[in-house]
Amino acid sequence: MDVSIIEDRKARARAWFESLRDDICASFERLEDDAPQSLYPGEAGRFKRTPWRRTDHTGAPGGGGVMSMMCGRLFEKVGVHCSTVHGEFAPEFRAQIPGAAEDPRFWASGISLIAHLRNPQVPAVHMNTRFVVTTKAWFGGGADLTPVLDRRRTQDDADTIAFHAAMKDACTGANGAADYDKYKKWCDEYFYLPHRKEARGVGGIFYDWHDSGDWGADLAFTHDVGHAFLKTYPDIVRRNFATAWTAEDREEQLIRRGRYVEFNLLYDRGTIFGLKTGGNVDSILSSLPPEVKWP
């Protein structure tokens, strides 16, 4: 492929991820402002941005990113991070990445988000999308919802229905670039804890190596996933943030967060990818909740 074409695609993808980051942070800060003071006393939180740089396994400069972290009164801990990295995959990692066995050089850009809310009535959420270039090029990502109260962890819960509808719309909208049923099933299978024999949450979509052959349609699908998340999750938060909770609800939330930690440290491919490619450890592990219990 012509170098100018791939460089243009890299620039367009990176610009989208950073623009989406800005819109999500602004939306979450508005929720911090609007949450009822009676349930969430104190000052509304604001995101703090921290740039970071990396080197690849050879010690050469390899790009970096910006951590955006907020610990507020409504959002107990949320990170919305963007990174754009490049370099060479370490030899032991190359066979796992399409196109890297032939040539270990890579470029990757993306956005990654995980939010843990103070109120157990509000589900935790994860979303990420990325564009990866080796000798091949593809998009990956997805979004999934994790209610932390057992009575909310059902497929007929209103929040679950709304979230799945949004992800289906992103897949089956005007661009028609994605297979919703395939990506929903992939999410259900991926976010499963074999040692617990249970799902981490209520699912959503998950995909990797997405390359339909029409790059414009694939970028538009990536936009649609971001737009669907930006519209739907803040609505879910707003619908629930005025609902009070009990000490028992909080205890259940902290125990359920333990499952989140177990998945991210044992199975999460993004965590493994980040650590094996010299990513920022604080950014990678910012997905972990601020308080958790294993009784």
Overview of this protein structure:
The chain is of the alpha+beta class. The protein is built from seven helices and nine strands; from the N terminus they run H-E-E-E-E-E-E-H-H-E-E-E-H-H-H-H. It has helices spanning 3-34, 158-172, 180-190, 215-240, 247-266, 269-276, 281-284, and strands at residues 48-55, 61-70, 75-88, 105-117, 124-133, 137-146, 192-193, 198-199, 203-210. A hairpin with a 4-residue loop joins strand 7 (192-193) and strand 8 (198-199). Helix 1 runs parallel beside helix 4.
Describe the protein's topology.
Elements: H1 3-34, E1 48-55, E2 61-70, E3 75-88, E4 105-117, E5 124-133, E6 137-146, H2 158-172, H3 180-190, E7 192-193, E8 198-199, E9 203-210, H4 215-240, H5 247-266, H6 269-276, H7 281-284
Antiparallel strand pairs: 1-2, 2-3, 3-4, 4-5, 5-6, 6-9, 7-8
Summarize it.
By secondary structure, the protein is α+β, with helices and mostly antiparallel strands. It has helices at residues 3-34, 158-172, 180-190, 215-240, 247-266, 269-276, 281-284; strands spanning 48-55, 61-70, 75-88, 105-117, 124-133, 137-146, 192-193, 198-199, 203-210.
